[in-house]
Structure to design on (141 residues):
């Protein structure tokens, strides 16, 4: 009960098979590159939104600082603290801060590894499906 494949069908498969494979590969490549670009744009949008929030907070603090600088007592105290300004008979003793701010260190992992890993998994799934498909064809012959 083996089916013979006609020459015409075999010729069609030889011509249309590589074309279909090329089209599928091109679509997969386009999908992956578009996904990577979209992910990078999303990450950039988050960073820019965070920067915008920080700039708005800075603008607000600068406006309050401008309002405070209208007061002469505040200006005198500011000059004493920051520029070591003193009145007659005063001494300046500067101490180091024991409570230094601890900077948060964020690990900058390249997220491309995640995308490349997903791409490899998708390719392996396609290869597994094609392998099973060709094995089932061999058994039918």
């Amino acid at each position: 009960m083996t089916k013979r494949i006609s020459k015409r069908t075999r010729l069609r498969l030889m011509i249309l098979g590589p074309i279909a494979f090329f089209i599928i590969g091109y679509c997969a490549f386009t999908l992956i590159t578009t996904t990577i670009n979209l992910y990078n744009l999303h990450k950039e949008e988050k960073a820019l939104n965070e920067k915008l929030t920080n700039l708005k907070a800075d603008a607000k603090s600068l406006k309050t600082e401008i309002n405070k600088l209208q007061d002469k007592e505040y200006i005198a105290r500011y000059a004493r603290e920051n520029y070591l300004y003193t009145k007659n008979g005063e001494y300046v003793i500067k101490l180091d801060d024991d409570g230094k701010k601890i900077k948060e260190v964020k690990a900058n992992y390249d997220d491309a590894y995640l995308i490349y890993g997903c791409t490899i998994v998708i390719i392996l799934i396609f290869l597994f499906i094609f392998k099973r498909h060709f094995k089932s064809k061999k058994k039918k012959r």
User: Anything to note?
Assistant: The chain has three helices and no strands. The radius of gyration is 34 Å. The chain has two domains: 7-93, 112-141. Helices lie at 7-68, 72-83, 112-140.
